[in-house]
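To illustrate the input format used throughout this study, we show a single complete record. The first block contains the structure-token representation of the backbone; no residue identities are included at this stage. The design step must infer an amino acid for every position from geometry alone.
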């Protein structure tokens, strides 16, 4: 479930990304540097990045990544990945068809992804569990990732539907809601992320791996029936959408992607998403995408 909460610009974009190719922006997206305190800059400034800064991973294009030809391969122990558990114990996100909170699904899946990545050598993988109410938690997530600084920010969620699609049923004697109309994963990026091109590259890799695991993506977000929940489909083969205003995607200063792993309001898919087998499948896809990303990043930008 996505939280379309927007906040005012805090003006804390790092100058590290000033050389980055920026997506087209309207004037309202221009960030003033007047409000940046020296303390904030000093604390938030990432470690020096190898030159050249201007070479973006996406410059190769998602289909042009011939990784076997790219040497040297990455050192997974140095890539810092933040796995953001969507929502909090206080603000649990969507409620499944069987009345389980989305936060529970998100945490279980993120923990499995963490195990998988660490087993693959990505020792600096960090599970980010945030406390408190929704809006404040979003800014805390962003600040935590920016302060590390992380190379990849991946937010883990499970999908639901707008309330108007909900139908009634009873589960274990309790009045409950479901919608079996939609299913599937989806991958979101923000075109307002300061490193949108790298975000898109990772999103493309992740969505491709989800598809390679035999999963189908959720088609409804490109359909008018979704109303204000409709989003531009950036890759119709694999299911990458843009969701520009999401705080955790636009305020993070690294490649940032949100994965809706599957629908928990769909009664069949909820059962799948609750199974360890499905968590293994998705974790394998994420690990494969991170590995490919790391190799490509290493080949272009050099060691971290
Ligand atoms: Zn969610």
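Output of the design step:
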């Amino acid at each position: 479930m996505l939280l379309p909460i927007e906040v005012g610009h805090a003006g804390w974009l790092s100058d590290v990304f000033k050389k980055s190719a920026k997506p087209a922006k309207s004037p309202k997206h221009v960030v003033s540097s007047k409000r940046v305190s020296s303390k904030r800059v000093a604390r938030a400034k990432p470690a020096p990045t190898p030159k050249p800064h201007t070479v973006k991973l996406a410059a190769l294009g998602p289909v042009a990544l011939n990784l076997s030809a790219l040497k040297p391969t990455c050192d997974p122990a140095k890539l810092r990945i933040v796995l953001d558990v969507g929502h909090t114990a206080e603000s649990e996100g969507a409620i499944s068809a069987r009345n389980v909170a989305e936060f529970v699904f998100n945490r279980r899946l993120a923990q499995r992804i963490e195990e998988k990545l660490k087993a693959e050598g990505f020792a600096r993988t960090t599970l980010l569990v945030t406390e408190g109410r929704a809006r404040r938690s979003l800014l805390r997530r962003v600040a935590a990732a920016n302060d590390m600084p992380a190379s990849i920010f991946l937010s883990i969620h499970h999908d639901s539907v707008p309330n108007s699609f909900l139908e009634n049923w009873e589960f274990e004697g309790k009045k409950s809601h479901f919608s079996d109309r939609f299913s599937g994963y989806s991958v979101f990026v923000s075109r307002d992320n300061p490193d949108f091109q790298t975000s898109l590259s990772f999103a493309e890799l992740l969505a491709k791996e989800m598809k390679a695991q035999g999963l189908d993506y959720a088609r409804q977000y490109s359909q008018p029936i979704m109303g204000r929940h409709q989003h531009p489909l950036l890759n119709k083969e694999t299911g990458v959408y843009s969701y520009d205003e999401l705080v955790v995607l636009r305020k993070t200063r690294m490649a940032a992607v949100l994965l809706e792993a599957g629908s928990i309001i769909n009664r069949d898919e909820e059962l799948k998403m609750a199974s360890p087998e499905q968590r293994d499948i998705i974790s394998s896809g994420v690990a494969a995408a991170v590995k490919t990303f790391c190799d490509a990043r290493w080949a272009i930008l050099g060691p971290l």
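Structural context for interpreting the output: Residues 1-2, 86-87, 93, 102, 157 surround zinc ion (CB under 6 Å). Strands lie at 81-85, 125-128, 152-159, 167-171, 174-178, 186-189, 233-235, 240-242, 255-263.
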